[in-house]
TrEMBL record:
Keywords: Transferase. This is Isopropylmalate/homocitrate/citramalate synthase. It comes from Mesotoga prima MesG1.Ag.4.2. Gene3D superfamilies: 1.10.238.260, Aldolase class I. The keyword Transferase applies. SUPFAM superfamilies: Aldolase (SSF51569). Transmembrane segments: none annotated. The lineage of its organism: Bacteria, Thermotogati, Thermotogota, Thermotogae, Kosmotogales. GO terms for molecular function: transferase activity. Pfam families: HMGL-like. Coiled coil: none annotated. PANTHER family: HOMOCITRATE SYNTHASE (PTHR42880), ISOPROPYLMALATE_HOMOCITRATE_CITRAMALATE SYNTHASE FAMILY PROTEIN (PTHR42880:SF1). Residues 41-294 form the Pyruvate carboxyltransferase domain.
Length: 417
């Protein structure tokens, strides 16, 4: 059933509404979406590398392989699998994933050192991310290199990887705490002298506003138009997704992200949020099978033993719970009119999260009671429904939680007696 189009707002046939979602119409205006935004971008998933830098977390060989296979099934373009130079266990896992010949590219992580690249080669990889800090204070005080030496080191590593038949990506981290003119010069020189396959600009500490990120990528793409840019961001101020949208608006080709937002400190921007957000809010495809998001999130949660917050975007366990009687009543009326995503931006089934769950508790209304009585095949008149509603509300206030359905059955049974 299709909803009726109102005189002052159309739903049918629009990019912001369909059988499973209802989002903001302005998202799809050209002046909002941005003239440089691409119709599709790719996901470079870093769960197995940067995700492992979550304090106290480590993947063993089988876990690394299992998550890698799941990421491939999810549809990410490339998987950053870790640093082979760290351990033989890492190398074995990377080799196993390479030998599987998955659809996703298997990409080791390397410092700008020949020995790191050799270890990646020894795993059979054909792609590699070559990293180095670009912040001048990092380089002078930690690495002991001048800007000229930094460029020489990075360029030499990239050219060496290319000589070995590999496709190198340059990743310049701690870039947003540097003056932009300096960073632009470093990236421009690396691009000019080494021509990597792609370049990653990194907001390592999540300290750039989305407005700054849009400016940065606009200028980088003007200066270096022939090399694809990727964006890697952490979430220190809760701005990671906003910065992703800004980067996409400015024309980036790829986003680095991790399942459940794993990563150092506040973590990386979450793969599930990037995939769902770009597809459902901007119509931008990432290659991700949205229906497999819930499963992949639970798998990584089980293996990592790091619990996802109940209200986490996209994969939180309580995202699609509704208790308020007013909300349940609105869902019922809008559903009958053909609007399925009534009180949520999209249906949970779209991202593999089951169905909307009507919960009973202190804020339940008669619509919630009717819903569950109908589900349970129990008949009651209006007076009984009103009394049951008050009993449920009181019990919810006493327990300070939602009630299990078995408890509701007990309440109904006692009441009906």
């Amino acid at each position: 059933m299709k909803p009726k189009d109102l005189e002052y707002m159309k739903l049918n046939g629009t990019p912001y509404f369909d059988d499973s979602r209802w989002v903001c119409p302005l998202n799809y205006e050209n002046k909002i979406r941005g003239k440089d935004a691409k119709d599709s971008i790719y996901i470079h998933d870093v769960t197995l590398r940067d995700g492992e830098q979550t304090c106290g977390l480590t993947w063993n060989e089988d876990q690394r392989v299992r998550i890698g296979v799941a990421l491939n099934e999810l549809g990410v373009k490339s998987i950053e699998v870790g640093m082979p130079i760290v351990s033989d266990e890492n190398k074995r896992a990377i080799r196993r994933l390479v030998d599987m010949k998955l659809d996703s590219e298997i990409v080791p992580f390397a410092r700008s050192l020949k020995k790191d690249i050799d270890e990646s080669l020894d795993c059979g990889a054909t792609r590699v991310v070559i990293e180095h800090a670009v912040n001048p204070y990092d380089n002078e005080l930690v690495y002991g290199v001048s800007p000229e030496k930094l460029v020489d080191r990075v360029v030499s590593a990239i050219l060496y990887a290319k000589e070995q038949g590999m496709k190198p990506t340059f990743m310049g981290w701690d870039a947003t705490r540097s003056s932009f003119d300096y960073v632009l010069k470093i990236f421009t020189e690396v691009a000019k002298q080494a021509k990597p396959e792609s370049m990653v600009f990194v907001d390592s500490f999540g300290v750039a506003s989305p407005f700054a990120i849009e400016f940065i990528f606009t200028e980088l793409r003007k200066a270096i138009p022939n090399i694809p840019f990727e964006f890697h961001v952490h979430n220190e101020f809760g701005l990671a997704m906003g910065s992703v949208f800004a980067a996409v608006r400015a024309g980036v080709s790829g986003i680095h992200s991790s399942i459940n937002g794993l990563g150092e400190r506040t973590g990386n921007v979450a793969t599930e949020e990037v995939a769902a957000g770009l597809k459902l809010l901007m119509g931008i495809d990432t290659g991700i099978d949205l229906s497999k998001i819930g499963y992949t999130s639970r798998l990584v949660e089980d293996i990592s033993k790091i619990q996802v917050a109940n209200n986490k975007p996209v994969v939180g366990k309580r995202l699609f719970w509704v208790e308020s009687g007013i909300v349940v009543d609105a869902i019922d009326k809008l559903n009958k009119a053909g609007i399925n995503a009534a009180m949520t931006p999209y249906l949970p089934s779209l991202v593999g999260m089951g169905e909307i769950q009507v919960k009973l508790g202190a804020f339940s209304g008669q619509a919630s009671i009717k819903y569950w009585l109908k589900r349970l095949g129990i008949e009651a008149n209006e007076d009984q429904i009103e009394e049951l509603t008050e009993i449920v509300r009181k019990e919810g206030r006493i327990r300070n939680t939602v009630l299990e359905i078995d408890e509701f059955k007990r309440i109904v049974g006692d009441f009906m007696k």
